[in-house]
Please model this.
Amino acid sequence: PGTATLTARQAAQGDYASASVSLALNVTARPNPTKDSTVTVAGQAQVDAAVRFAAAQQANVQSRLRQLRSAEGANASSSGVTFNLQSVTGRDMSVPTGALNLDGAGLPPGWGVWTAGALIFDERRGGDGFAGFDVRSEGVSIGLDRQVGETLIVGAAAGLGWNDTNFNGSPSGMDGSQGSVSGYGLWRANEHVFVDALVGWGRLDFDLTRWSAEAGALASAKRSGDQWFGSLTLGYEERGARGVLTGYGRLDASRTMLDAYRERGLGLLDLTYRDQTIDNSSMAFGIEAGRNFKHGETRIRPFALLEYRAALQNSGDQAMNYVLNPATSDYILSLSSFNDDAWVLGAGLDIDLPAGWLLSLSYRREDGSKSESKGYGLSVTYRGKPGRN
Model:
């Protein structure tokens, strides 16, 4: 940056006197891209979407694990398989796996098949250097699980996710998609204590557009990446004649590795973005209560939960530079996801139909320091015809 002066001179010759002309060129440095709100919000949207993709698949599988834990409660004997074992005190311990009974349903006994979906509306609050934005995320999963031994259930699931982000007051936008596979399990130590876990891998793709006021044009780009995610839950259940009360602690974690990419369409202002790693982990503590009702051959179980989530790690810094004539060192944009400290309130309804279907409806609201979200879930499980006891 600076000023350069070009001067042309003509010496006197014949009838022409000497003359000169000068041209001053003002050279202005390109701006620091991390100070551009459109760059910041695009980076923030990618970090949030990556963590949200993992969280959606975790939530779908955790919903299935909740079903397995509470399948029939104290009334498991009327529809499905109940495993009974003797505790050291001589009392029967019911391990509810009613959702697994597929006798006569065309699958081997002890297997269950399920599908679940979630629709999430997220309002991301603005921060330093960027405006807020609105997000709609969808995630669906399908899974298969079976009983192994008397106290263990294992399963596998595949999932798809979609993300549509609209940047407030800007023609910029982002569409994302994810495909994932995961494995999960539930183990009961006794009639009260349980442990469940899941681990998964996903592939992410983003289509990005960013409006640049400096260039008066729209940049476009594509980006891909991979992610790992997992959860580990330790819980305690107290069952009564008509319901169950559960307290739990859960560790959630994800790591996303996004590939480097570059923009096109802004000329000298096109940016290139380096590889990015997004790490997120949190610890949640919650309580869930459920109540069992029976109407004819149909069993209904409303439930509610209250949870507090504390972030353990939340980082996703992005390095970038200009494509043409890059700066000597990269610019660094510090980013963290929406998944910070938050309160979670949820409620839902399990409907166990006599034909072997289990329908679950759920609502979930999260209030955090950086965002507010509302989620709606639907899960359908087929466990075959009720077995005898």
Observations:
- The CA atoms of residues 4 and 25 lie 5 Å apart.
- The radius of gyration is 28 Å.
- Residues 72-105 have pLDDT under 50 and may be disordered.
